[in-house]
Amino acid sequence: MAHAKEAKMRQKSGQQKSSADKAIKDIRRATRKSYSAEEKIRIVLEGLRGEDSIAALCHREGIAESMYYTWSKEFLEAGKRRLAGDTARAAITDEVQTLRREARDLKEVVAEQTLELRLLKKHDSGWGRRRMRYLASEKLEIIRLVEQSHLPVKMTLDQLGIPRQTFYCWYDRLQRLGVEGLEDRSSAPSRVWNRIPDDVREDLIELALDEPELSPRKLAVTFTDTKSYFVSEASVYRLLKAHDLITSPAFIIVKADNEFKDKTVRPNEMWQTDFTYLKVIGWGWFYLSTILDDLELAREICTTGISGISA
Question: Where are the domains of the chain?
């Protein structure tokens, strides 16, 4: 009987205690202080300053440390999102787009003025003229100028007066062959189809040295007959001239006598002739041929003299 009464009293006291705890919690919940956003920021900033420990700060403000760290995390994440949002919004605003466009236009104007200034300096060298031939160093300078220009490639090349096809040909040769590829290539063919072989040239030179009295024509004929290899007279002459083997012809000076050594003694033994090309007005050009017997001409000279024959 006593035990039953004790158990009943213990149960009753437990119920009273639980109801009291519940009442206390309700009171605390009803009287719990609600912190505004400004107060949360103030508390978080004080914690970030580090003047007091987090535990002392939470005790003074009457909050749990876990609540402080929750506020701090939310504060930092909110600031990060805001900064990212401001950056994204700033990048797409009309004002920023306008400033970027103005900056781009300004760069193009400066680049164009700089290009024109360089062209003025290069004007004396012929830059920009039609069919101008550029040195390899000038081609490289033009390529670097186009690469560093803020203007489009077409606009830059139009200012320089260089066709785009020519520029890209230079650029391709620079990429494949380096600076040496920008040198002007000779227009002469690399190999002539009918060039005389070197061994034949050596045989010709050797024959010319063995037969110095032969002319280029005779030398060409002799070489063709002996070597069974046809070489023209002009080729032999050019080859001898290149090796300084052309000799001056031997001129024989003949002086005229006052009379023939073997004089004519009868008619029709010797005839003399002469041709003259003359123009007859109203008719045209004609050949005049005179033929005289030498014996008769000598008699006329002796009788009448030169003036009489001319008359």
Answer: 1-28, 97-182, 199-242, 271-310
